[in-house]
Structure formats: C-alpha cells, structure tokens
C-alpha cells in the first residue's frame, strides 16, 4: 500500500492490539448476550442467494489496509478477467478478533482513542487516528488510492477503501463475541458500565455491517451452507 509504511504500522500496533481487542469474554453478565443484536435475517440472505461466485475473506488482524486491496483485486479479476457481472459476485469480509475495530465508525475511534491505544496514526495528520482510516474513500486514508479503476490503469492506484468496496457489493461482518470483549476492556479503561459501552459499539458500526453471533461460527455456516470459498487473511 502506498500511503502507509507497513513495517512501521505493525511495529507500533502489535503490542496494543492483543490487549484491546481480545475476543475472549466473561460469561458473568448474561445481559450482554442478546440475540436480537444479531442481524440474522440479512445473514440468511447471504447464504440463500444464488450468486455465481461467493468468496469469503477471514480477517483477524488490523493491517495497513492490504486486506481491502485483496478484496478489490478479487472483484477486478472476476469482472475484468473472467467476465462475471458484479451482481453475480458476492464477497464477504468477516472482520473478527483483532480486526473488528475496522468495523467501527469515526465517532468510536475518536471517543475511545483507538488510534492512540493501537498505535495507529492517521496518514493525513501523522498523529494517532481519531477516525476509521480504512473507511475513507475520496477524503483520503490508509485505503485511499484515487478512483482510476484497475481496468483503466495501475491496479495499485484503485480506491480500495471500505466505503468504495461496499458500494460494489462487498459485505462486512462483525463478531458479536469480539465486540463484547472489547466493550469490557474499554469500560474498565474509561470507568464506564460495560453494558453502555457494548450498546455504544454496536450502535456505531460502519453502515451496512452485519453483526453475527461469532465470526468463527458465521464462517462455518457460510462455508457449509452458503458454499463460499474461504480465504484466510
């Protein structure tokens, strides 16, 4: 990726990630487990729809945005190389475990100082990110590479932001189990009630993100019942 040094990104973020976004949670508070939070009806449509090609990306780490470029590359290859129409393709990104934070909107990144905690700097400012730098498209960010389009120029110059990928039909999933774990850490750090933090996190996901009971279980269902091809990132 051109807009961020990958080695610097990992060296800064690795130590903080394991603490902040651990997917393990305590079962002591049953109020934190509410099946109504899960977007099962929409998830069921992913399983039942007869797309010509179904590709699942299993994402567990926060990287420099490369995972979204791989999703873009898959789309471009299927459409331009294999001649498959966009509406015949479904790409799903299961952002679970540590990667769940990439599902959070700007307000959460700012409120809970996620960039500071994760040692992730905003490439526009050089300071700890107070916005989701992976979501931005034309406004810039880690995943921004203009709007040329791979079919018209260098694939590396294509916009692989989350927002642009969603506009092309990519579906992101958020692991409820991981979000519960994150809510516990953040509640303790900011001296808040975990239930309030959990509601805050779940209420401020990026547009269109589907909450599933757990990322690993959703992956199993997508593979076995939805016949999605699996790719670990």
Structure characterization notes:
The chain has 233 residues and is of the alpha/beta class. The chain has one domain (6-17, 38-232). Residues 1-12, 22-28 and 144-153 have low confidence and may be disordered. It is built from nine helices and five strands. It is 39% helix and 11% strand. It has helices at residues 6-20, 40-48, 66-81, 106-111, 114-118, 162-167, 176-190, 194-203, 215-224; strands spanning 53-59, 89-95, 171-175, 210-212, 229-232. 42% of the residues are buried. A five-stranded parallel sheet has the order 4-3-2-1-5, sandwiched between helices.
Any idea how many domains?
1
Approximate strand percentage: 5-15%
Alpha carbon gap, first and last residue? 15 Å
Q: What is the spatial order of strands in the main beta sheet?
A: 4-3-2-1-5
The helix/strand series, from N terminus to C terminus, equals HHEHEHHHEHHEHE
Low-confidence stretches: 1-12, 22-28, 144-153
| Gross morphology | globular
Instruction: Tell me how many strands there are.
Output: 5
User: Largest beta sheet, briefly?
Assistant: 5 strands, parallel
Q: How big is the Rg?
A: 17 Å
Helix content: 25-40%
Mean pLDDT: 83
Tally of alpha and pi helices: 9
Label the structural class: alpha/beta
């Amino acid at each position: 990726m051109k807009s961020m040094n990958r080695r610097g990104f990992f060296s800064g973020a690795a130590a903080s990630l394991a603490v902040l976004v651990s997917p393990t949670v305590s079962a002591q508070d049953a109020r934190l487990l509410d099946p109504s939070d899960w977007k099962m009806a929409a998830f069921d449509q992913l399983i039942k729809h007869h797309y010509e090609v179904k590709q699942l990306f299993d994402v567990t780490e926060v990287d420099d945005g490369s995972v979204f470029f791989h999703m873009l590359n898959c789309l471009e290859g299927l459409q331009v190389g294999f001649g498959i129409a966009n509406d015949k393709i479904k790409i799903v990104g299961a952002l679970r475990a540590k990667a769940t934070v990439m599902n959070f909107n700007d307000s959460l990144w700012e409120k809970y100082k996620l960039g500071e905690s994760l040692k992730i700097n905003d490439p526009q400012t050089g300071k700890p990110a107070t916005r989701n730098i992976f979501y931005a498209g034309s406004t810039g960010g880690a995943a921004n590479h203009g709007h040329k389009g791979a079919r018209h120029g260098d694939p590396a110059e294509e916009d692989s932001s989350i927002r642009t990928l969603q506009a092309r039909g990519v579906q992101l999933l958020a692991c409820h189990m991981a979000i519960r774990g994150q809510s516990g850490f953040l509640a303790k750090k900011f001296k808040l009630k975990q239930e309030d933090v959990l509601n805050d996190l779940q209420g401020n996901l990026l547009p269109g993100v589907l909450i599933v009971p757990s990322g690993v279980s959703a992956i199993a269902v997508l593979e076995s019942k939805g016949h999605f091809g699996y790719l670990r990132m």
